[in-house]
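Justification of resources, computational component.

The compute hours requested in this renewal are based largely on the per-chain cost of generating structure records like the one below. Each record pairs the submitted sequence with a full structure-token output. That output is archived, and it is also reused by downstream analysis tasks.
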Amino acid sequence: MRAWLRSAWHLPRRGDDFDIWERRRKVIARIAPGRSFVDVGGMWSVHGRTAFLAEEAGAEQVTLLDAMPATDEFDAERARRGSKVAYVAGDLHDAEGIERLGRFDVVWCTGVLYHTPNPLIQMENLGRLAESTLVLGSRVIPEVPGVEQACVFYPLQSGQAQAEWARAMGDDLSRPGATSPFLRGFSYENWWWGLSSSAIRAMLNLAGFSVVEEHSPTPFLTDFVARRDERPAS
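The structure output for this chain reads:
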């Protein structure tokens, strides 16, 4: 395991967040103007940042869907901006709720997929929301040599394995399941799956999308820009 992760040990330590969000801002500026836009799971720790960027860029209708309540920071920023971003309480696992929400030209979902034991259910529901474009950002694992579409199930790994993941990821953040003990029960705080980029591409294809862009600022993070593909998945 250590040999496999060795190439990912040396990650940038400062400026990562700025670089990632500057790149995301540029993507939003290209795809949001004049379109309906939904930010799925965009409340935790970022307080609607993506939704506000989409509104700034000229999206005609912006919605933020999240299972957690709107934060005070989100409400304050919405008031400061005089924003029309709509907050909707909902869970990406709830197919009926997703159907009621409707469809959007652009669906944005980052930092969500690896926090569920059921990533395929979430991917299918993202497909129900997206009329044409899906931006999916996820923490990923390095590709495993000789193994296509590899995935790692994080819960209940040994302490030694957790230490190796922490060393590879290069910081002291707590990631329950991956780098610290798993929180028993169905908790979105847990890291459930380590998904390779090739596995996520395959999941997107099954959900009816073709990847047109990939941005990987670190070996452990990839943002995919995907378009609706009407052809049958192969």
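The CA atoms of residues 30 and 57 lie 8 Å apart. Residues 2-228 form a domain with the Rossmann fold fold (CATH 3.40.50.150).
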